[in-house]
Design a protein that fits this description.
The complex is a heterodimer. Chain A is mostly helical. Chain A is about 80% helix and about 0% strand. Chain B contains 13 helices and 10 strands. Classes of the chains: A mainly alpha, B alpha/beta.
């Protein structure tokens, strides 16, 4: 059961990382297009709307997997540690990560926000993923011994 | 025998004169025939485009026949050439050979490296072949030229980078949009300026075109020409909400679109990207609109800046092209002189060259 919990969450990190890759590509290209940098035409590039699209779906998939993984973890916590939520550092950090990506999706869905700002958010949010994934274990500790 | 070329191009002659000497495509067979029969030239190719008119001929070494060629031109086009001597150039070997090779490589074009000329050289050649004015020398000559033209573009970057306003605009649009089929173009103004950009975008697959103009009649004319829908300028915002690419080329002396209007439209569009190509002078779109998120605004200077930067990159490649040409010239001329006999000139036909014709 722990295997599924960790596996699903790890898969969500992969999806969030895809959002970073497409996001950075988007931001570099968008910046050049805005600044009217002639280099924009010097190399073959992927159209912005496609990058935005893939970035969006990567966040959707990552968020769904992440949510499922957290839910799995909540029940595992109940079984092993006696409560659904135990304020373990990894739990807290996961909570913030979840909120960050939720905000990206909410902005996209309600305001219809596209482009630079939401893409930038999806890239910056990955810092939280890295903290949740690795940082907590090294810097804070807690009950999540094996990541 | 000697390969010669008599002609004029965009550098030596103004368009008023070039168009008087241009050969209509359906008249070329008659002209080729006349050159062979009347002037007595065995091999001849006519290359006639909007930027050049050139007669490539296989001439006897002695002088005089070139005068007859000029006489033919004068008769054929009913133009007195006496006043236009300085507009012509006339080359003999090896410069004539070098000239065609440079033309085919795009080095002699107004827009250096453009590829249309290579197709035009090929067409001129196949047309001459089908009318029997190409023999073994010109088969080799033109096939070498066409090969050089291809090689120049594949081995150097002479043909790369968008160098016209409309191609730069299209290239930029391709950096924004993946699928042109689902995109809508809104064209403000019904002038000639926008038409080439519009045509270029249509070639990319754009199917939905809206033409907005102050007078709907002239919008309708352009709409018919490019297959679009004509609308009055008054309902601008409504159509902006639908459009993905906006081309502006009206003669308006003030901004047709304020930054505030564009911001409103973006909200209605739910922030779908909007690409403005503002080729009008004075500009039609408030430049501040370009700072809005998901709005990309390029004016004529931006587009020209990129085009000329690309052209400079092409010019840097000219030396590499010249090297290819000089190499091939040495090879070509050595083959030519090997079998060069006054009456019966024949190349060593170590390749079945006739089979390549028109392929």
């Amino acid at each position: 059961m722990i295997g599924l919990h960790a596996g699903v969450i790890f898969a969500s990190y992969a999806a969030f990382f895809l959002a970073v890759l497409t996001g950075v590509a988007f931001l570099v290209q968008e910046g050049r297009l805005k600044r009217k940098d002639a280099r924009i035409l010097a190399m073959p590039t992927i159209p912005l709307d496609l990058l935005d699209r893939v970035n969006f779906w990567a966040v959707v998939i990552g968020f769904s997997l992440f949510s499922f993984g957290i839910l799995k973890g909540v029940f595992l916590a109940r079984e092993n540690w006696g409560a659904f939520w135990t304020w373990d550092p990894k739990e807290v950090s996961s909570g913030f990560t979840w909120l960050a990506y939720a905000a990206v999706l909410v902005l996209r869905a309600t305001v219809g926000l596209k482009g630079r700002r939401v893409v930038l958010m999806s890239v910056v949010s990955f810092l939280l993923v890295m903290f949740t994934f690795i940082g907590v274990n090294y810097l804070v500790g807690g009950k999540h011994v094996f990541f | 025998m000697d390969i010669g070329v008599l002609g004029l191009n965009h550098r030596t002659a103004p368009v008023e004169f070039r168009e008087r000497l241009a050969f209509q495509e359906d008249r070329i067979p008659v002209a080729l025939n006349a050159i062979r029969e009347e002037v007595g030239i065995p091999e001849c190719v006519i290359l006639s485009t909007c930027n050049r008119v050139e007669l490539y001929t296989l001439l006897p070494r002695e002088n005089g026949i070139e005068e007859e060629l000029r006489g033919f031109l004068s008769r054929f086009h009913r133009v007195n050439l006496k006043d236009f001597e300085s507009n012509f150039y006339s080359y003999r070997q090896p410069n004539s050979v070098r000239h065609l090779f440079r033309v085919a490589a795009g080095l002699d074009s107004m827009v250096v490296g453009e590829s249309e000329i290579l197709g035009q050289v090929r067409d001129a050649y196949t047309q001459a072949v089908s009318h029997g004015t190409v023999g073994s020398v010109f088969h080799r000559f033109f096939q070498t030229a066409i090969r050089i033209g291809k090689e120049a573009r594949s081995k150097t970057r002479i043909g790369q980078g968008a160098v016209s306003i409309s191609s730069v605009a299209v290239e930029l649009a391709r950096r924004i949009f993946l699928d042109f089929k689902t995109k809508t173009i809104l064209n403000l103004g019904a002038g000639q300026m926008a038409e080439s950009t519009l045509t270029c975008l249509k070639e990319q697959g754009v199917s939905s075109i809206i033409i907005a103009n102050r007078t709907v009649e002239s919008a309708a004319v352009l709409a018919r020409a490019v297959g679009g829908q004509a609308v009055p300028l008054s309902s601008l915002e409504q159509f902006l909400a639908k459009a993905d690419i906006v081309i502006c080329s009206t003669a308006s002396d003030r901004y047709l679109l304020s930054s505030e209007q564009v911001r409103r439209v973006m909200a209605v569009r739910r922030q779908r990207p909007l690409f403005f190509i503002d080729i009008s002078v004075p500009r039609n779109v408030d430049p501040r609109a370009g700072q809005l998120e998901n709005v990309y605004l390029y004016d004529i200077d931006d587009l020209e800046g990129i085009a000329s930067a690309n052209l400079r990159l092409r010019l840097k490649e000219a030396d590499a092209c010249t090297r290819i040409i000089e190499e091939q010239m040495a090879d070509f001329l050595s083959r030519f002189s090997r079998k060069d006999q006054p009456q019966d000139i024949r190349f060593q036909e170590d390749e079945p060259i006739y089979k390549e014709v028109a392929s």
